């Protein structure tokens, strides 16, 4: 069994208005998680419902986590910062608020998904400069907040771990590293929602090659934490006729919002090669840091869904992964 501490994103415990943040934290603690990722919208809703500022709400949520012996892993997701067309001064002001909130929560990480707007600036000199300023805000005072940069499969310019690692090396700040997610890797190099098979041509070879490159080239100290989720296979394949289809939206983004169950929930349609990815990242590469479950199951938006049940689903999923990884490695 792996020694990685297990966390869960608060949004992955429920998305119905009745699923209050404090209830979700209690559910996570009772199920046995070591930590949580606090989603800003959950904190915002909690604060508003109690007539509190975000800062005061963060104080109360930190106390609730302490009472439940839960560590706060990250504040997420700080989206569309680098290369955005809006004035940098406005983005830095917003970043300062998020980082200060992370400090109140005593969260070691601010999660920053790769920019995904179509009109974003692609000039790497600009992007590196802006990300350095973000990292420097995080290290400007104690407690230090590190930036966990996440390549998403639909990110405009940095959608792979390889390109994002190049960015990490260019930013060159000790508090700037990677957050890696099984869903984003799988839906970039392996899965195809438009194919009957659910896979791109040569999917297994493509995945094996990127995992081998990861083993050779990615320094473990630049992987801050990893996230796990699965993806439901579209049957029939995804198309413009699908009720989730939105013109102009990346299909992987649509997929992510609606159909990311916990890893290995094959009974719910999960089919991504999560075990193979985790074997490479944790089993073979030896990543020993935090592992977090970040899933988006549209059923959790329903009133009859329960954070307590979601929390237990996640624990069962983590146990399944560990059991599968006890079996000998099989070639993809």
UniProtKB/TrEMBL annotation:
Q: Which InterPro entries match?
A: IolE/XylAMocC-like, Xyl_isomerase-like_sf, Xyl_isomerase-like_TIM-brl
Tell me which UniProt keywords the record has, alphabetically. Answer: Dioxygenase, Oxidoreductase, Pyruvate
Pfam families given in the database record: AP_endonuc_2 (PF01261)
Signal sequence bounds? none
Q: Does the keyword Oxidoreductase apply?
A: yes
Q: Which GO terms describe its molecular function?
A: dioxygenase activity
Does the UniProt entry include the keyword Cell membrane?
Answer: no
Q: Which residues form the Xylose isomerase-like TIM barrel domain?
A: 26-320
Q: Which domain of life is it from?
A: Eukaryota
Tell me the protein's name. 4-hydroxyphenylpyruvate dioxygenase
| Native source species | Aspergillus leporis
């Amino acid at each position: 069994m792996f020694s990685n501490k297990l966390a869960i994103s608060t949004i992955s415990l429920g998305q119905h208005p009745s699923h209050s943040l404090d209830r979700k934290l209690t559910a996570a603690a009772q199920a046995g998680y070591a930590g949580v990722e606090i989603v800003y919208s959950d904190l915002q809703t909690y604060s508003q419902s109690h007539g509190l500022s975000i800062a005061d709400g963060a104080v109360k949520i930190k106390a609730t986590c302490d009472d439940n012996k839960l560590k706060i892993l990250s504040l997420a997701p700080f989206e569309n910062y680098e290369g955005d067309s809006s004035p940098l001064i406005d983005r830095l002001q917003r970043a300062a608020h998020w980082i200060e909130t992370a400090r109140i929560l005593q969260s070691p990480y601010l999660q920053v998904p790769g920019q995904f707007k179509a009109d974003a600036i692609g000039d790497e000199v600009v992007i590196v400069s802006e990300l350095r300023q973000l990292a420097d805000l995080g290290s400007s005072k104690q407690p230090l907040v590190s930036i966990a940069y996440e390549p998403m499969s639909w990110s405009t310019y940095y959608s792979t771990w390889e390109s994002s690692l190049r960015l990490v090396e260019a930013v060159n700040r000790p508090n700037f590293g990677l957050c890696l997610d099984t869903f984003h890797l799988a839906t970039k190099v392996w899965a195809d929602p438009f194919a009957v098979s659910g896979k791109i041509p040569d999917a297994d070879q493509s995945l094996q090659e990127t995992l081998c490159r990861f083993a050779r080239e990615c320094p473990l100290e630049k992987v801050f934490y990893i996230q796990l989720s699965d993806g439901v296979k579209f049957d029939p394949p995804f198309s413009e006729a699908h009720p989730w289809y939105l013109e102009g939206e990346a299909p992987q983004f649509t997929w992510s919002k609606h159909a990311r169950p916990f890893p290995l929930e094959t009974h719910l349609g999960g089919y991504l090669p999560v075990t193979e990815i985790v074997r490479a990242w944790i089993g073979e590469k030896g990543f020993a840091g935090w592992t977090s479950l970040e899933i988006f199951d549209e059923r959790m938006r329903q009133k009859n869904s329960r954070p307590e049940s979601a929390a237990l689903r996640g624990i069962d999923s983590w146990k399944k992964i560990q059991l599968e990884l006890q079996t000998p490695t099989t070639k993809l």
